[in-house]
């Protein structure tokens, strides 16, 4: 799943080397924390959060086959 998130986000940003995805796993949920360069934050979130929502939709759909709930957080 980390590779999928990186594959989606890296073409969107100016500093793809700063893209980092960390994950924490609990009983019935997996949380992925996406970190990008500060200047790329707006590109990842998009106008009114549309890009972030689209990224989340793809990640949630890809994780639907797992038995755990998937969450994606975008952090600075």
Automatic annotation (TrEMBL):
A GO molecular-function annotation: RNA binding
The protein, known as: RNA-binding protein KhpA
Q: Which family does it belong to?
A: Belongs to the KhpA RNA-binding protein family.
GO CC term (a single one)? cytoplasm
Q: What are its GO biological-process terms?
A: cell wall organization; peptidoglycan biosynthetic process; regulation of cell shape
In UniProt terms, what function does this protein have? A probable RNA chaperone. Forms a complex with KhpB which binds to cellular RNA and controls its expression. Plays a role in peptidoglycan (PG) homeostasis and cell length regulation.
UniProt keyword terms in alphabetical order: Cell shape, Cell wall biogenesis/degradation, Chaperone, Cytoplasm, RNA-binding
Question: Which organism encodes this protein?
Answer: Mesobacillus campisalis
Cross-referenced Pfam families: KH_KhpA-B (PF13083)
Location comes to:
Cytoplasm
Q: Which domain of life is it from?
A: Bacteria
In terms of HAMAP family, this protein maps to: KhpA
Cite the record's note on assembly. Forms a complex with KhpB.
């Amino acid at each position: 799943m980390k590779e999928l998130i990186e594959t989606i986000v890296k073409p969107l940003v100016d500093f793809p080397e700063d893209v980092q995805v960390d994950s924490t796993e609990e009983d019935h949920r997996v949380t992925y924390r996406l970190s990008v360069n500060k200047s790329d934050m707006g590109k990842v979130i998009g106008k009114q959060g549309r890009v972030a929502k689209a990224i989340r939709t793809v990640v949630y759909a890809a994780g639907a086959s797992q038995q755990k709930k998937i969450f994606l957080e975008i952090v600075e």
